[in-house]
Amino acid sequence: MSLDFLFNPKSVILIGAAHTEIKLGGVVLQNLLNYGRPVYPVNPKYDELMGIKAYRTIQDIQSPADLAIIMRPAVEVPTILNELEGKVKGAIVVSSGFAEVGESGLQDEVKKTGARLGMRLLGPNCMGVFNPIRKFDTLFIARERMKRPRKGNVAILSQSGAIMVSLFEAIKASNTGISKAVGYGNAIDIDESDLFEYLVEDRETDVVVSYVESLGDGRKFIDKARALSESKSLIVLKSGKGASSSAAAFSHTGRLAGKYEVFASVLKQFGIREAQDFDELMDASKALSYQRPVKPNSGRKTANRVCIITNGGGSGVLAADECMRHGLEVVRVPQNKLTTLKGVFPNFYVLNNPVDLTAQVKDDDYLTVLNELKDEYDGFVIIALPNIPGITQKLAELLKGFREKFNKPLVSHIPSDGISGRIIALLEKARIPVYPSPERAVKGLKALLS
Amino acid sequence: MSLDFLFNPKSVILIGAAHTEIKLGGVVLQNLLNYGRPVYPVNPKYDELMGIKAYRTIQDIQSPADLAIIMRPAVEVPTILNELEGKVKGAIVVSSGFAEVGESGLQDEVKKTGARLGMRLLGPNCMGVFNPIRKFDTLFIARERMKRPRKGNVAILSQSGAIMVSLFEAIKASNTGISKAVGYGNAIDIDESDLFEYLVEDRETDVVVSYVESLGDGRKFIDKARALSESKSLIVLKSGKGASSSAAAFSHTGRLAGKYEVFASVLKQFGIREAQDFDELMDASKALSYQRPVKPNSGRKTANRVCIITNGGGSGVLAADECMRHGLEVVRVPQNKLTTLKGVFPNFYVLNNPVDLTAQVKDDDYLTVLNELKDEYDGFVIIALPNIPGITQKLAELLKGFREKFNKPLVSHIPSDGISGRIIALLEKARIPVYPSPERAVKGLKALLS
Are B437 and A252 within 8 A, CB to CB? Predict the structure, then answer.
């Protein structure tokens, strides 16, 4: 069964709807009011909620619906599912109080009930769905408390609602946007693998960010992740890596975290990108959202040759250190190219890799180096400390032109301050991602090379 | 000889002063005009520069001075030093074009000349000195292009001018401030070790941030770093870790980077803090600038027991993963404490470590946990996702009160968005550092535990 009903339901039943946004059931109802399709709120005390017809019981709803959202205490969920029989394709069980607090028996009952009724389940203990393209939003956080990210090409799949919220904030700060987002919690039925499978065909998604705490079926995960990686850029962040944190992950969603080292080595074996922490996840997804990753050329096995062009020596060295940590090679500039560059630049420019154009740099120098070295490297890190007269908005124009002409992976580090704001905005508009440290720029570039 | 003349000279000679801020010698002159003590600009073409008396030659200056700043081409530097004989205690050689571009012979000549004349040298190829407490500023970056950080308790020692500038930006973003900053470049005479020694007695400095690319005398470095660590919080970031990046570091300052692994193991052996990258350096220095590190209590060897209190499960798990990477132990909550907490909290709160107060949290819950567990742990990570109704400004007041009363290491992760701005500001005013990701909060806490 396609998961379309989850992202774009023809109609929605909200069980546990409330009349006020002080209650979570009211927040969700408010968010659903923007959805252009029928919403049937259920609450035994009301005939009308927030200006639309409400239903005292599920039985009172005569129209068939696609999806139910359940926001009632955990113990009521099995009964509610039975009442939904034949009315919906699936349900989002927002309620918590299941395996994550030791109530595994209740969780099993919910799982079995869903299976018996042929009803797909998201959750329980989950955040639900956000689809900005369809304006479908089941999150129990008011818009005033969390501005939603804009539309974009990044899909977010998060086992944790908290991380989904944090990812939203980071997405906004990255000048990227969301195609679809799902917080799937305890994953008793629909899990990351099902969502990977669904997203293979999703034309609105280029990048898939997957935050996983624990895996149900490891083999299925790998199969679906590999299939997805063929058409989209997938990045996985696995948490619960150690004994104590894996216990925490278990508590959080009630699934076993498994042995991390095994998981990581399998990901690596199949070429599936893994981020080590939250920042790396966002650094990679920003780059992948802006640019397409490249394959190695001229018979080499990997595209991993990086050139760093900087106007600050130290920043270049930090970037080179980070390259080393990621298996990226900061190979020397070929002798003939070096000779050419020496002919056009002052003698105090340091023409190695990193190419250090020093505080005396002019905007055009970056383009001179890029043009000369474009065929020698797989990707470039541009570091521009904007506190000196030679760095102006023109740099953004030059890099934009280069990027459009040659389509080479190109990321940038520019420290954020008053003067750099405009340059950063121009670069990011030109789909050149800018990062707040040399190391983070390299993490971004790494995602584009394979 | 004390290095006071470098940070607080009685008077300054500026060789290579210019009449306009388009030239670097003009920028430095402009910055020196704010210094309340005599400045003698030297330029063969002017009798007056920027409203003060200028000198055609060094010989024309009759008054003795403390310090010279040299901003003339590299080849002129030996002659200039000879002309300064007997006039100054030392000189900042800003000029580049020495060992970093292969001119080691010229660099040696400068070194020998300084030694023969008994003149201490900073540089060459360096940024110079910034001392906000004395308003002494030799940086060749105009204030309009780089707003200076405010006064504070962090000293910055950077071999790289670029990194010094980036550190300034990061210091401003951290709501911390600078006691003294030195960019010392090729370090032919005054190096990080000399500066460590000087800072031992500096009452304005609590934290020393040391960015090092290459070491002259490794033993001296370790001796002085150990001595400094007894009274101040020292954090070292060593770049040039690998073959290619260490070649880059050599190009950059003309000193050999040495074998990184040896350096790192010696630092560890002597308990000197090392940061792995720029962000970690800043995360640690922010925490150390806000709070004093603690020693282990009750006969334990290390203070490494961490409690994570969160309202988002996933964020807690990521923090726990990061603790594991740093050798911090996320030990379980003792059974008797667990029983107490279970008695006061709803059953869907997940009472492990991390303590997950869920999206239903109220501000007071954090304080309840802190009060109950304060003697069980060495430090606390507070994670508050502010998008839910239960998190308000009151949280900042409660944490402030706890921190003032118990003086326990306490760091926080709050994603930055519209609603959280006020809470973050209040917390940082109360000297509780707030970080943009769970992992970075842990990096901050790590610096406070030893």
Answer: no
User: Which residue of A145, A249, A317 is in closest CB contact with B213?
Assistant: A317
**Residue A360: closest C-alpha in chain B:** B24
Tracing tokens 């309340």 back to the chain, one arrives at: B36
List chain A residues with CB under 8 Å of B419.
145-146
Could B347 and A97 be called an inter-chain contact, meaning their C-beta atoms sit closer than 8 Å? yes
Q: What does the pLDDT look like over B281-311, one tens digit per residue? A: 999 999 999 999 997 766 777 889 999 999 9
Question: Greater confidence, B214 or A177?
Answer: A177
- Residue B67 forms beta bridges with which residues? B12, B90
- Residue B241: the pLDDT is 81
Q: Chain B residues with CB inside 8 Å of A213's CB?
A: 314, 317
Nearest CA to A306 among A381, A382, A357, A375?
A381
What was the pLDDT predicted at A417? 72
Mean pLDDT of B347-369: 94
Q: Which of A39-53, B206-220, B392-406 has the lowest mean pLDDT?
A: B206-220
**Which among B244, B279, B324 is the top mutation candidate for probing chain A, defined by the most A β-carbons within 10 Å of its own β-carbon?**
B244
Q: What is the pLDDT of residue A243?
A: 62
pLDDT above 70: percentage of residues in chain B: 96
Does residue A433 or residue B388 have the better pLDDT? A433
Interchain CB distance below 8 Å, B385 and A166: yes
Closest chain A residue to the Cα of B440, Cα to Cα: A279
pLDDT digits (tens, 9 = 90+) for A354-364: 999 998 899 99
**Predicted local confidence at residue A216, as pLDDT:** 80
Q: How far is A307 from chain B (nearest CA, A)?
A: 11
Q: Among residues of chain A, what percentage have pLDDT more than 90?
A: 83
3-state secondary structure chain B: CCCHHHHCCCCEEEECCCCCCCCHHHHHHHHHCCCCCCEEEECCCCCEECCEECECCHHHCCCCCCEEEECCCHHHHHHHHHHCCCCCCEEEECCCCCHHHCCHHHHHHHHHHHHHHCCEEECCCCCEEEECCCCEECCCCCCCCCCCCCEEEEEEEECCHHHHHHHHHHHHHCCCCEEEEEECCCCCCCCHHHHHHHHHCCCCCCEEEEEECCCCCHHHHHHHHHHHHHHCEEEEEECCCCHHHHHHHHHHHCCCCCCHHHHHHHHHHCCCEEECCHHHHHHHHHHHHHCCCECCCCCCCCCCEEEEEECCHHHHHHHHHHHHHCCCECCCCCHHHHHHHHHHCCCCCEECCCEECCCCCCHHHHHHHHHHHCCCCCEEEEECCCCCCCCCCHHHHHHHHHHHHHCCCEEEECCCCCCCHHHHHHHHHCCCCEECCHHHHHHHHHHHEC
For A314, the closest of B252, B318, B387 (CB atoms) is B252
Model confidence at A252: pLDDT above 80: no
Task: Kindly list the residues from chain B whose CB atom is less than 8 angstroms away from the CB atom of residue A359.
Answer: 140, 161
Closest chain A residue to B149, measured at CA:
A417
Asked if the model's pLDDT at residue A260 lies above 90, the reply is: no
